[in-house]
Amino acid sequence: MMIQRSAFMLFGICAALAVSPAAAQDKVTVASATAVTAVPVLIAAEKGFFRQEGLAVEVKRLAGGNETINALAANTVEFAESSHAQFISAAAKGLPTVGISLVSRGFFGKMIAATRHASLTELKDYKGKRIGIQAGTGVYTVFLMTLEKQGLDAKDFVITNMRVNDMPAVMQSDQIDAVVAWEPQAKRIVESGRGKEVIAAQRFEQMADITYPFILLTHERILKERRDVAQRYVNGMARAQKYIRDNRKETIAFYRSTLSPDVRTTVPDAELEDQIYGASRYDRVEFAALDLADLKRTAEFLASQKTIDKVPDFDRAIDLSVGRAAQPLTGN
User: Fold this and answer.
1) How do 97-105 and 213-219 pair as beta strands?
2) Which of 8, 66, 57 is nearest to 28 (CA)?
3) Domain 26-106+211-330 part of CATH 3.40.50.620
4) 246: which residues sit within 8 A by CB, 6+ positions away?
5) Which CATH number is 110-208 given?
6) What value, to the nearest 5°, has the Cα angle with vertex 218 and ends 4 and 204?
7) What is the pLDDT of residues 87-120, one digit of tens each?
8) Nearest CA among 111, 161, 138 for reference residue 35
9) pLDDT reading at 15 higher than 70
């Protein structure tokens, strides 16, 4: 899944900048969503971490995770990034794609209530009330999983499907009791005085018992024929994670430079920082046991909801060795 969190410019970035003719580089392309989740790969390209690994990486910006996975399955790119729900769906369909590392992790959905409900901080408090959420997203899946864990059901609420981009205007109209949004829309609702954050993103993580990994995929043929390229690519991503953790100001400034001119000149640093660091963590590229448990649990839930036909074979859909080998480069 991955959902748009900000208005990036659609552009490609090549990691091969002014290299020596003797330093032959392998050319690869990655499909990444037009969202803040692309920060690690853009940093890896901009700061030369791919180049250090002998790779010339072109970044193709697409609308979302479904599009990136389709591009990978069609053999038009070597790597793709997607949310865990989209990865699970692709694996359940038997697509020839394999998850090889984490790009980042962390859930980003927040419940923003109308100010008249500011004192209601439990999901059960909203039974019978109108809740806006963007259906078909990873955030929606986690919301449903959280309800189930708390002995609640979607039918206990009046759930309205709406785009997250429309939520600030809807909250202004005072026609809904709460929304499950992400940044920057969540902050804009709060700053307008029309809502208050009542359930934070990390609290949703705890309630749903998830890590919400954002995943890097490659094609099966890459692991069979060019495994060294996959390893070097993830090595570059691991170095980018470390850079993002260690260099907040520089990362924010670079992120700003990727935005469209109208956004670049109006959004304050604090909002950009919240988009990059507010929910996402950049501490591992390897699949930890908690990530694998989250993927299995989410797949079982999606299968029970008939969203996917079956729980995928994660032994086939995930290669643990690539991320594990690169993990020391993250500095964690």
Assistant:
1) antiparallel
2) 57
3) no
4) 331
5) 3.40.190.10
6) 40
7) 999 999 999 999 999 999 999 999 999 999 999 9
8) 138
9) no
In this prediction, residue 40 carries a pLDDT of 97
Q: Do domains 26-106+211-330 and 110-208 have the same CATH topology?
A: yes
Say how far apart CA 79 and CA 282 lie, in whole Å: 19
How many CA atoms within 13 Å lie on the side-chain side of 81?
Answer: 32
Question: Rounded to an integer, what distance in angstroms lies between the CA atom of residue 101 and that of residue 285?
Answer: 5
Domain boundaries, the chain: 26-106+211-330, 110-208
Print burial letters for 76-97: b (CB count within 10 Å at least 16), e (below 16).
ebbbbbbbbbbbbbbbbeebeb
Quick one: which of 256, 204, 255, 215 has its CA closest to 237?
A: 215
Tens of pLDDT, residue by residue over 187-233, are 899 999 999 999 999 999 999 999 999 999 999 999 999 999 999 99
Q: Which two tokens stand for residue 321?
A: 């060795």
Helix, strand, coil % in the chain, rounded to nearest 5: 50, 20, 35
User: In the predicted model, what is the mean pLDDT of the chain?
Assistant: 91
Asked whether the bond before 213 is cis by omega within 30 degrees of 0, the reply is no
Residue type, 164: V
Radius of gyration of the chain (CA): 20
What is the token pair recorded at 134? 């963007």
